[in-house]
């Protein structure tokens, strides 16, 4: 069996190995995780609720969100045979989202995801942890013109591009080599296109704001043509009537309707972050009586 060792100041509960081993024997092609207790208790509260409270079916339906793997990496446990089948971690260096890439490879090969519903790891939060060196975003507006470098925005609050090196960031004194200029965002979009969108002839993007428009622009042309509408609750966005994709090379430029969510039709790719609106978004979604996975997927 392969047990992901905890970081040096994380702590395992005495029963962790036994309980996760038992689950791995029952599910030999699954990554086995567990619930965690975060230290300090109020750090990353939304994320901690998410990884601890996902239902068993959501361990597979919510693999597209910005949170990443649906069982947190320090809790991973699987058979050595399955680990060898999936392949090694990407050892490309700091800034490579190795856990996400391995998790995607695991799912592509038919692997499952199981969580032992007991808190078996004390998971300590560090602002300078390697996790935070992985870039979620180097958007089109961030990369400089070919051959040039500049101090630009990225997933960090501050970022400096090294002179003459548009692919290297300095932050907090550490080098972060961007993963061949690809980003977590790009990996996530391509995985969505590979795993979910082929099953839908058409779909609606739930969020006519920046995040929804960004997803639309990031899609490959074939996937973009499946977007029949954006939907939202913001009357100001809805009053605009449509979103025009001005950067498109198509003529005429695509114009995508913006509808109230009750006037839109599923399936939806939801670009609204969970657990941020005091329950208003979740109430709206529940009111439609949809089935997650079949009628909608969370992407934000």
Automatic annotation (TrEMBL):
Keywords associated with the record: Glycosyltransferase, Transferase
InterPro entries referenced in this protein's UniProt entry, alphabetically: Nucleotide-diphossugar_trans (IPR029044)
The species this protein was found in: Equus przewalskii
SUPFAM superfamilies found in the cross-reference section: Nucleotide-diphospho-sugar transferases
Species classification: Eukaryota, Metazoa, Chordata, Craniata, Vertebrata
Gene3D superfamilies in the cross-refs: Spore Coat Polysaccharide Biosynthesis Protein SpsA, Chain A
Origin: domain of life: Eukaryota
Transferase keyword on record: yes
Designated name of the protein: Queuosine-tRNA galactosyltransferase isoform X26
């Amino acid at each position: 069996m392969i047990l992901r060792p905890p970081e040096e100041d994380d702590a395992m509960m005495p029963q962790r190995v036994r309980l996760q081993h038992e689950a791995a024997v029952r599910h030999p092609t699954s990554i086995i995780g567990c619930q965690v207790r975060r230290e300090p208790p109020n750090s990353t509260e939304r994320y901690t609720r998410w990884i601890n409270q996902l239902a068993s079916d959501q361990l597979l339906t919510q693999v597209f969100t910005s949170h990443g793997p649906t069982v947190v990496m320090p809790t991973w446990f699987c058979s050595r045979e399955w680990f060898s089948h999936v392949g090694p971690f990407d050892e490309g260096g700091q800034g490579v989202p190795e856990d996400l890439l391995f998790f995607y490879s695991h799912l592509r090969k038919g692997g499952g995801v199981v969580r032992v519903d007991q808190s078996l790891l004390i998971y300590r939060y560090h602002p300078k942890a390697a996790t935070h060196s992985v870039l979620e975003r180097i958007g089109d507006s961030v990369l400089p013109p070919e051959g040039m470098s500049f101090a630009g925005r990225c997933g960090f609050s501050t970022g400096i591009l090294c002179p003459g090196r548009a692919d290297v960031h300095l932050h907090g004194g550490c080098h972060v080599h961007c993963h061949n200029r690809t980003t977590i965002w790009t990996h996530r979009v391509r995985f969505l296109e590979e795993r979910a969108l082929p099953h839908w002839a058409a779909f609606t993007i739930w969020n006519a704001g920046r995040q929804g428009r960004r997803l639309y622009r990031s899609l490959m042309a074939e996937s973009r043509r499946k977007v029949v509408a954006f939907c939202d609750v913001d009357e100001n966005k809805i009053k605009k009537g449509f979103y025009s994709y001005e950067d498109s090379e198509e003529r005429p430029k695509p114009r995508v309707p913006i509808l109230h969510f009750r006037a839109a039709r599923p399936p939806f790719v939801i670009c609204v972050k969970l657990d941020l609106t005091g329950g208003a978004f979740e109430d709206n979604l529940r009111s439609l009586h949809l089935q997650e996975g079949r009628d909608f997927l969370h992407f934000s």
